[in-house]
Amino acid sequence: MVKGRDKLLVEKRDEALLRRYHYWTEIQRLRFDDALKILSHKEFFISEERIMAIVRANCNKLDDIKIMPVPKVRKPKITEDDLRLLTE
Q: Is the backbone of residue 4 left (phi > 0), alpha (psi -120 to 50) or beta?
């Protein structure tokens, strides 16, 4: 018997998560952060970051629905010199 997670079960979980993400964001029209909270705390019990990673990795795997994940937000790198310019 192989140790670790069953790949088939993980794939089914990911598909269910994608369908629920689509339901909350497109059908119920919730903001994505509110949908992530529901998925994380009430339905799948995994972190919001992990849910977004699953959505981004698997968004093209379902043929019957179109899932658009929220793009990653890049934060600008601000140095101490930049901060001094802003405070002066």
A: left
